[in-house]
Amino acid sequence: TTTTRLYCAQSCLNQSWVDSSGDFVQWPFDGSYIDIMINHNGTPSSNQPAFVTGYFGQVCSFNASVKQAIYTSFIPLNNVSFTIEAWIKPTGYPNSTDHSIVGLCPSQTTRRCLHINTRNTKLYFGFFSDDLQGATTISLNQWIHTAFVFDATTKQQTIYLKGVQDGQASASSALLTSSSNLTIGMNEQGYIDHLSINRRAKSSCEILEIATLAAHFEFDSASSYTDSGPNAVATTSSTTSITSGYKNEAISFSGSSTSYFQAWGFTSLGVSNQAFSITFWIKPQTLSGTLVHLSSSPSGNGSTCFSLLGFASNGAIIAQVLTNNGTIG
């Protein structure tokens, strides 16, 4: 595969980022099939998909051999723009061709059968005719963000993998399906998490942020300690306050061992050879202590437990990671 390098004139600076407008359905799959937008709660098949710990909280686990699936009432996507997103982790490809993520298909009739799946190990976005296949082979046992966008104005279909365009084509018409239940996960082998449907065509920059931004903490009075990123990760704090900052406001720590801000659910930090970045502004009053601490336990201890960023004895900022052989350096 190749990566298209973005230059200043092509960057995301002038495009819209995460935006809740057009949100229609969202299934976080945190122990239930509930749509948090209230409209389309899911009903499981008789062989119910299981809930297990996944990318964010819990996820749905599907076993293709027993035809596990989730069904909802009709979702009107005919003649409109839409974006369908999900985190998926395939664990096998037992079927000869398709492993479904989402289907809205009352009959196999031209442009009346929405099917979004992995076909022959690549992402697939079809209306039954006007179909598009991604370019990248999807590896097993890895969490990936997928997005499928249709723009009703331009009639353009786009597949995104990990926030990057993986395929694009022009359709001759919008989707015309006007009835049928929506089906999630039929013949899927693996996990699906944070499935959402939005009735607008999201921008490439918005999808990139959703796929790559784990959390964003502004520490302003209006949001305080809330994650304003796409995942709404859980947080807690102790002996902190909100004060004037570099941009608007900032979090202030007392310097004691009981003064901290904690967030959890960062699955990617537990994946070997996974790139990551952490950025923030600081105004230290003393050049000592820990800036970012990573732990596998809420207590701050655990089998994985070390400071990612902190101050050395000479006041310099030092960074360290856990290497493949289990050492910190």
Structure description:
It contains one helix and 22 strands. A hairpin with a 5-residue loop joins β9 and β10. The model is unreliable at 1-9 (pLDDT under 50). The chain folds into two domains: 22-212, Jelly Rolls, CATH 2.60.120; 235-319, no CATH class. 3% of the residues lie in helices and 36% in strands. Keywords: Disulfide bond, Signal. This is LamG-like jellyroll fold domain-containing protein.
Major sheet attributes:
8 strands, antiparallel
User: Percent helix among the residues?
Assistant: under 10%
Helix-strand sequence? EEEEEEEEEEEEEEEHEEEEEEE
Percent of residues in beta strands? 35-45%
CATH architecture of the largest domain: Sandwich
**Tally of helical runs:** 1
Rg is 22 Å
Report how far apart the termini are.
32 Å
The tally of domains stands at 2
Query: If you consult CATH, what is the topology of the largest domain?
Result: Jelly Rolls
The strand count comes to 22
Describe the structure concisely.
Pfam families: Laminin_G_3 (PF13385). The protein has 329 residues and is mainly β.
